[in-house]
Amino acid sequence: MSVQTSRRPHSPAPGSSGRVPPVIPTQPGPGGRGPGGGGKKKRTKRKDPLWAKLTLALGAILMVTSGVAIVGSKAVIGQATSNIAQRNLLGDAGKTDAEGGASLEGPIDMLLLGVDARARWAADDVRSDSIIILHIPASHDQAYLISIPRDTEAHIPASEKAGWKGGTDKINAAFQVGARNGGGWEGGAQMMARTIKGMTGISFDGAAIINFGGFKNVIDAIGTVRICVTEEVSSLHMSMVDGKPMWNADAKKTGKTMRPVTYKKGCQEMEGWQALDYSRQRKTLRNGDYDRQQNQQQLIKAMAKKASQNGTLSNPLKLNALIKAAGKAFVLDTGGTSIDDFIFTMKGVTGNDLVTLRTNGGTFNGNGNNREALNQLSMDMFQAVKDDKLAEFVVNNPSVLSTRK
């Protein structure tokens, strides 16, 4: 049976790649979707050569890397499939047949969620404070990251299982609502996907949940990452005790002198714990959650670049360590498509092709009740994602580009 190609927008016309010209800011489960999970045709299994480029999505399925020859890449991807937990994270927010279904021939949209649940797995009291939409245009040669502010007011749809009648709240509460009464992380992601679809109209091809506690090991597997700190900030979460970093709660128990972890302004190599801690700071930053969003996007991009530069993907030992770390840090949904098909579809995207975008001009847009609303430009940007016209939109509206390099 042939691969579906007609249910999504076609690739750009010849001569138009759909890529954003280089723009440098001047300043610093498987299982079907929808009722019954049916209605999708099976995709043809492609026979990719062993030397095919590997795109391993980390950082919430996004450690996009390529250009590295891998020996036995199919076996490597098979191992990744077995190590990374796969769940139905989208429910009825996955793309329908009319939107492309399981076909990866058109644009690809993924929902990336970050949760902080160091000691628990199926917690029912966790909110997702990191909400990112990953968009890959039909040309499959570029990727965009758009963060949704945690305090955005949104309508969270009703859920009988969760005992929720529906209503408005901060969008980060959607995950917690879906996780209630045994819904767990799977239910939380499904509710978040439904909420975002209702707000933006975007349906998804896949989703990933990142456990911040396990993310540190993913960074450590590739060594350090280069992060540029735009303003000095002291950590609200960690302190140094006898020269060693510790969570503040643990540090207090020692009864010893605590020295706040401080990140000085400037570009620097960070270890896993430093990069993760820095990317979680919010309250002491000038623009609060917006600065944190950009720092998290910067971290994902830095990881993508590092993995393609240090030989991780061509060194079996390094690659095995990376895959094992990913298995502990991520829960993944590729929408019924096999992971190897999903990865090879994105083989043309590199870390340098990752464009980070921001909503509301990077500043809080209050709506009068301690929440915020997405401005019209931000809503137009999400419409461009849905229409697969984001490259054109960014060229015409360069203010949406993140100031982080």
Concise synopsis of the structure shown:
The protein contains eleven helices and 16 strands. It is α+β, with helices and mostly antiparallel strands and 405 residues long.
Please give a structural write-up:
This protein is α+β, with helices and mostly antiparallel strands and 405 residues long. It has one domain (57-230, 265-400): LCP protein (Aminopeptidase). It has eleven helices and 16 strands. It has a seven-stranded mixed beta sheet with strand order 3-15-9-4-5-6-16, sandwiched between helices. A three-stranded antiparallel beta sheet has the order 12-11-13, with helices on both faces. A two-stranded antiparallel sheet has the order 1-2. α4 crosses α6 (272-280). The chain is globular. 48% of the residues are buried. Residues 1-72 and 118-122 have low confidence and may be disordered. The chain crosses the membrane at residues 50-72. Belongs to the LytR/CpsA/Psr (LCP) family. Residues 29-38 have a biased composition (Gly residues). Residues 127-308 form the Cell envelope-related transcriptional attenuator domain.
Helices and strands, with pairings:
Blueprint lengths: L55 E2 L4 E2 L9 H11 L1 E2 L21 E8 L12 E9 L6 E5 L5 E4 L10 E4 L2 H7 L4 H17 L5 E6 H10 L3 E5 L3 E9 L2 E4 H7 L4 E5 L2 E5 L1 H9 L8 H21 L6 H14 E4 L5 H7 L8 E4 L18 H11 L3 H7 L9
Parallel strand pairs: 3-15, 4-9, 6-16
Antiparallel strand pairs: 1-2, 4-5, 5-6, 7-8, 9-15, 10-14, 11-12, 11-13
Helix pairs in contact: 1-8, 2-3, 4-6, 4-8, 6-7, 10-11
